[in-house]
Amino acid sequence: MGKFYGVVNGHSKEPRIFTEWSEAKKEVTGAKGALYKGFLTLAEAEEFIGMRKETESDDDGLTVYVDGSFELETGRYAYGLVVVSGGEEIHSEGYAMKGEFSSMRNVAGEVLGAIKAMEYAIRNGHKKLHLYFDYQGIESWAIGTWKRNNALTMGYHEHYRKLSVDLKVIFHKVKGHSGNRFNDRADEMAKMAFRK
Fold this sequence. Notes:
Residues 53-59 have low confidence and may be disordered. Helix 4 packs parallel to helix 6 (151-163). A hairpin with a 2-residue loop joins strand 5 and strand 6 (88-97). By secondary structure, the protein is an alpha/beta fold. It has two domains: 4-56, no CATH class; 62-193, Nucleotidyltransferase, domain 5 (2-Layer Sandwich). It is 36% helix and 28% strand. The strands form two sheets. It has a five-stranded mixed beta sheet. A three-stranded antiparallel beta sheet has the order 2-1-3, sandwiched between helices.
């Protein structure tokens, strides 16, 4: 491993970077769902834990934010998706539905949004996607570090596996409802989908 250790979902729950493996090891040992990796540069570690600014990734692939929502009264879930280029929104969409995955509430919407983001990237000729999300399962189910125990998570993992042949997805976890402009906009698009 390198000199910088990126940790997501450690004991502190906040993404962190360590320069000593002994410290990083304390943060991840026994922490359920912890993700960690060593890097030679600070920039790579920052990208891994989602600290890089949007503009830093714009020149290097497509940037998309996704979020999910759930409507208790109807049992519908929805996704919101926002495509960003040059620090500005260039495309947004949202869609609501009810079905076998309604029991997963807003998580079902966010998974669907991640799939739609990957498909959008491929459809528009991109080879790399910077995918921003606020629920860790979006990355962990895709890459296989979380157990997939239902049709939605298994299907999502398989879909990601097939699409990743033509598309490199770089996952960026952001804190939900923290004032991140585009994450908030994706959340807004998901909620707006219920009005259609």
